[in-house]
């Protein structure tokens, strides 16, 4: 994910990334586990009060947050206090998520174009936020909820699965697990265990590929409901999904066409990693080779 890559880029070279990875994933799993108690306890309370089954009470997405939860909080003692805490939590959660996503975009562009954008970071951030603000205005209209649902269906989802799979395949298959393990050894002083190398090379890419395939096979428009979307919205949705996916094969084609030699030489140059990688030792450069 771009957010994790952007934030980790500010660490020192010999930062303990192994510890950070375990802490981040553990906290994420624990947060999801605790959130389950909150969600299902509220749904159970609503089902008991309304004398309905949980299937009839439960909603997902905005309906769960803006309909079920406020209604449940209104029935509790001290509803005003809990309402303030709940909506304050929503505001801080939204701001926190926005900070991370924007920082991924800002960091990537500033690092890629340090002379043009990096030197004018504050101005670039101001222009970017203004552009995003203008683009988000349609979601504040009367039909904005349907636009939000449209973006939620076709925006992330399949695109994220594809990008993560390509990222894993590119690093562990083309760059090579041994090269990647050597990089970590230079950072931490020891190589990752055999368990991690097997997970990186075989288990993780295989699971990601299977999830991606089954998601494509079982994919539905998911736009059915009280509002009937126009037929062209499905095509527009797939264009939105492909807009964040096509950049990968298009850039690969560009690198292939920009390479020299016959087809075999071009493929070798396209999939060969960068030869110079900075190490933790000042003035030392490690020359990596593809597997």
How would you portray this structure in words?
This protein has two domains: 140 residues, no CATH class; 150 residues, no CATH class. Helix content is 71%, strand content 2%. Helix 7 packs across helix 10 and helix 8 runs antiparallel to helix 9. The relative contact order is 0.08. It has 291 residues and is an all-alpha fold. Its main location: membrane. This is Sodium-dependent serotonin transporter.
Structural class: mainly alpha
- Quaternary arrangement of the chains shown? single chain
Biggest β-sheet: count, sense, barrel? 2 strands, antiparallel
Amino- and carboxy-terminal Cα gap: 24 Å
Mean pLDDT: 82
Largest beta sheet: strand ordering: 1-2
Amount of beta strand: under 5%
Strands, total number:
2
Shape: globular
Q: How large is the radius of gyration?
A: 23 Å
Order of helices and strands: HHHHHHHHHHHHEE
Model regions low in confidence, pLDDT < 50 over at least 5 residues: 279-291
Domain module tally: 2
Q: Please, how many helices?
A: 12
User: What percent of residues adopt helix (DSSP H or I)?
Assistant: over 70%
Topology overview:
Elements: H1 2-8, H2 17-50, H3 54-57, H4 62-74, H5 79-112, H6 121-136, H7 144-154, H8 158-188, H9 194-217, H10 232-243, H11 247-258, H12 263-270, E1 276-278, E2 285-287
Antiparallel strand pairs: 1-2
Helix pairs in contact: 1-5, 2-4, 7-10, 8-9, 11-12
Summarize it:
71% of the residues lie in helices and 2% in strands. The protein is mostly helical and 291 residues long. It is globular.
Main traits of this protein?
serotonin:sodium:chloride symporter activity; sodium; disordered C terminus; single chain; transport; transmembrane helix; 2% strand; 2 strands; 291 residues; 2 domains; two-stranded antiparallel sheet; mainly alpha; 12 helices
């Amino acid at each position: 994910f771009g957010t994790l890559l952007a934030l980790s880029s500010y660490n020192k070279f010999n930062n303990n990334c192994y510890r950070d990875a375990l802490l981040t994933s553990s906290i994420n799993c624990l947060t999801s586990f605790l959130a389950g108690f909150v969600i299902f306890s509220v749904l159970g309370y609503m089902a008991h009060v309304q004398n309905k089954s949980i299937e009839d009470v439960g909603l997902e997405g905005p309906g769960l947050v803006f309909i079920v939860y406020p209604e449940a909080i209104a029935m509790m003692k001290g509803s005003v206090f809990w309402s303030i805490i709940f909506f304050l939590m929503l505001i801080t959660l939204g701001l926190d998520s926005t900070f991370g996503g924007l920082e991924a975009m800002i960091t990537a562009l500033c690092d890629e174009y340090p002379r043009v954008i990096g030197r004018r970071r504050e101005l670039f951030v101001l222009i970017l936020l203004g552009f995003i603000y203008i683009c988000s205005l349609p979601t504040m209209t009367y039909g904005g909820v349907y636009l939000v649902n449209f973006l939620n269906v076709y925006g992330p989802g399949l695109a994220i699965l594809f990008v993560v799979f390509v990222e894993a395949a590119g690093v562990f298959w083309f760059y090579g697990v041994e090269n990647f393990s050597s990089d970590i050894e230079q950072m931490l002083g020891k190589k990752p265990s055999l368990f991690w190398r097997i997970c990186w090379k075989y288990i993780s890419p295989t699971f990601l590929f299977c999830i991606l395939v089954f998601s494509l096979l079982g994919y539905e428009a998911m736009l059915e409901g009280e509002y009937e979307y126009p037929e062209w919205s499905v095509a527009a949705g797939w264009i939105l999904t492909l807009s964040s996916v096509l950049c990968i094969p298009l850039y690969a084609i560009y690198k292939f066409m920009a390479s020299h030699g016959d087809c075999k030489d071009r493929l070798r140059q396209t999939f060969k990693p960068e030869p110079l990688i900075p190490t933790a030792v000042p003035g030392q450069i490690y020359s990596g080779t593809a597997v």
